[in-house]
Amino acid sequence: MNAFTPILVLGAVAAAFAVVSVTIAVVVGPRRFNRAKLGAYECGIEPLSNHTVSTQRFPVRYYVTAMLFIIFDIEIVFLYPWAVAFDNLGLCALVEMLLFMVVVFVAYAYVWRRGGLSWE
Questions:
Q1: Which parts pass through the membrane (predicted)?
Q2: Which residues face 42 on adjacent strands?
Q3: Is the pLDDT reported for residue 43 higher than 60?
Q4: CA dihedral angle for residue 27, residue 33, residue 37, residue 38, rounded to 10 degrees
């Protein structure tokens, strides 16, 4: 049990911080509601006046941008453990990371060439 005590304390502190933050925001925050604040925000697209059935198609470029961000963000996250343990790793790990970076840059160049990064 002693080995898990710091983890439990950290979890309790995180939960308490979340609850206290939300409570303070509700108690102290302004309560001036208007029609614009209560309306749904849909990434710059004007919301439909008829909320029963959505007949407008949502542009795919929002999903493409989100997926590209997630893919490249996750790939970059893999660099952190390697950077921390770089001194203990050998030449093989350096070659593997260079190969990984080549794959990332090839994917980036492919997306750039296909116009996945242009917003127009």
A1: 6-28, 62-82, 88-111
A2: 45
A3: yes
A4: 100
